[in-house]
């Protein structure tokens, strides 16, 4: 029952990717409806346009979350993702095991176990959002 209610209340309108982010007619969907937010996906397309996305989100008062830590550092509301440092460390461990003679086919695939939550309080204040103290307490980094 909860899943049915959630499906009715959460909508993910899909927007086509294009280079017209700066063109006002291409982002009329950014006009903020009550309770709306923007989830920015991973990938080079969004990374290359991070500043444009943050500017548009701020202009239209749309809270944003991304899997890119730098997104929150550049002015987005928050980011949540696996730890890049931990992922690179684990890749180094895998490389060392292969160099020692272990067969890659015999090695298990690992999932990330360390995740990072970054919250930008300056962006929250600009959006007139109050971030709960419990969320701030578990954040790995709080940008003021």
SSE string, helices as H and strands as E: HEHHEHEHEHHE
- Mean residue pLDDT: 81
- Shape estimate: elongated
- From the N-terminal CA to the C-terminal CA, the straight-line distance is 39 Å
Total helical segments? 7
Q: How does CATH name the architecture of the domain at 37-83 and 114-143? A: 3-Layer(aba) Sandwich
Helical fraction equals 25-40%
Q: How many E-type strands? A: 5
Name the poorly predicted regions.
1-10
Strand order in the sheet with the most strands: 1-2-3-4-5
CATH class of the domain at 37-83 and 114-143: Alpha Beta
Whole-angstrom Rg = 19 Å
What characterizes the major β-sheet?
5 strands, mixed
Sheet-strand content, in percent, reads 5-15%
By CATH, the superfamily of the domain at 37-83 and 114-143 comes out as Response regulator
CATH topology description of the domain at 37-83 and 114-143: Rossmann fold
Summing up helix and strand content along with how strands pair, one would put the structural category as alpha/beta
Describe the fold and architecture.
The protein is built from seven helices and five strands, in the order H-E-H-H-E-H-E-H-E-H-H-E. It is α/β, with parallel strands linked by helices. It has a five-stranded mixed beta sheet.
């Amino acid at each position: 029952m909860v899943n049915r209610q959630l499906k009715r209340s959460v909508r993910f309108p899909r927007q086509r990717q294009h280079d017209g982010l700066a063109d006002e007619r291409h982002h009329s969907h950014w006009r903020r409806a009550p309770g709306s937010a923007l989830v920015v996906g991973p990938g080079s397309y969004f990374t290359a346009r991070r500043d444009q996305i943050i500017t548009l989100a701020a202009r239209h008062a749309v809270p944003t979350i991304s899997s890119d830590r730098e997104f929150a550092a550049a002015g987005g509301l928050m980011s949540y993702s696996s730890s890049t440092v931990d992922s690179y460390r684990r890749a180094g461990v895998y490389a060392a095991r292969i160099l020692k003679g272990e067969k890659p086919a015999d090695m298990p695939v690992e999932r990330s176990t360390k995740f990072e939550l970054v919250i930008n309080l300056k962006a929250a204040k600009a959006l007139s959002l109050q971030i709960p103290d419990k969320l701030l307490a578990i954040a790995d980094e709080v940008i003021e």
